[in-house]
Amino acid sequence: MPKGYWIGHVTVDDPHAYEAYRAANAAAFAKYGARFLVRGGPQEVVEGDLRPRAVVIEFPTIEAARECYTSPEYQAAMALRTPVSQADICIVEGYTPE
């Protein structure tokens, strides 16, 4: 079964308030086996336009990635994020060579 990934590009409008979201999302991410591969480090945009913060989160399966996003735990965390940031997030199935 392929892994699942969240790929996000985020603009944080209130860094102090965003910390509450980061603390709250830990429960959902632990429950669904998430692992951060990229979490807001320096980025160099070489083509197109992106938000200033990039995030890539790996899940053990694509189903876990989807379930995490719709879970009550993550939805509660997201309620803290949306007033203080703007995000573009997609859930992507990992590549499995044939």
Written overview of the protein:
- The protein has three helices and four strands; from the N terminus they run E-H-E-E-H-H-E.
- The chain has helices spanning 15-31, 62-70, 72-81; strands at residues 4-12, 35-39, 53-59, 85-93.
- It has a four-stranded antiparallel beta sheet with strand order 2-3-1-4.
- Helix 1 runs antiparallel to helix 3.
- The longest helix has 17 residues, at 15-31.
- The radius of gyration is 14 Å and the shape is globular.
Fold topology:
Layout: E1 4-12, H1 15-31, E2 35-39, E3 53-59, H2 62-70, H3 72-81, E4 85-93
Antiparallel strand pairs: 1-3, 1-4, 2-3
Helix pairs in contact: 1-3
In short:
The chain is of the alpha+beta class and 98 residues long. The chain is built from three helices and four strands, in the order E-H-E-E-H-H-E.
In spatial order, strands of the major sheet run 2-3-1-4
Number of helices: 3
Question: What is the number of beta strands?
Answer: 4
Q: Runs with pLDDT <50, length 5+? A: none
Beta-strand percentage range: 25-35%
Shape summary: globular
**Sheet/helix structural class:** alpha+beta
Order of helices and strands: EHEEHHE
Average pLDDT taken over every residue: 97
Distance between the terminal alpha carbons, to the nearest Å?
A: 12 Å
Helix content: 25-40%
Largest sheet: 4 strands, antiparallel
- Compute the CA-based radius of gyration: 14 Å
